[in-house]
UniProtKB/TrEMBL annotation:
Belongs to the type-B carboxylesterase/lipase family. It holds the Pfam family COesterase. Keywords: Hydrolase, Serine esterase. This is Carboxylesterase type B domain-containing protein. One of its GO terms (cellular component) is plasma membrane. One of its GO terms (molecular function) is acetylcholinesterase activity. The keyword Zinc-finger does not apply. Residues 1-117 form the Carboxylesterase type B domain. SUPFAM superfamilies: alpha/beta-Hydrolases. GO terms for biological process: acetylcholine catabolic process; choline metabolic process.
Length: 132
């Protein structure tokens, strides 16, 4: 990637993104990587940790942003969304449509209510699992 022109990286940043895939975006405020608070200044001055192979991050509830666009029938509502278990399973199939069936089954298994505390009716629980 270092050999590629910046314009090429920017052009390709949004191409072929699937549901819940995110483009590369710069992080400008991170005291663990940059030696000073402003990342853009640190990059210009070479004041950053150069011994990093990969950086990955996760934001809690980041699915909320995408759900209203990609699953509007469930999440583009003024009130707190509620899903049935069947709705939840449809969401998993939509979100992971490009993944093998074993991945879709694993995602369903991880987030399903295995204690059956939420029944088969509509529940805030299943909507929260899709947004997690």
């Amino acid at each position: 990637m270092r050999a590629l022109p910046a314009a090429k990286l920017l052009d390709d940043m949004w191409s072929d993104l699937e549901f819940l895939e995110f483009p590369f975006v710069p992080v400008s405020r991170d005291r663990n990587f940059f030696r000073q608070y402003d990342g853009f200044t640190a990059l210009r001055q070479g004041q950053f940790n150069k011994n990093v192979n990969i950086m990955i991050g996760i934001n809690h509830d980041e699915g909320n942003f995408w759900n209203i666009y990609n699953l509007p029938e469930y999440f583009d509502k003024p009130e707190q969304p509620q899903l049935t278990q069947e709705d939840f399973l449809k969401c998993v199939q939509t979100v992971f449509h490009s993944q093998p069936e074993v991945v879709r089954d694993a995602a369903s298994f991880v987030y399903l209510d295995r204690k059956c505390q939420h029944g088969l009716g509509k529940s805030k629980y299943y909507a929260e699992q899709v947004s997690a």
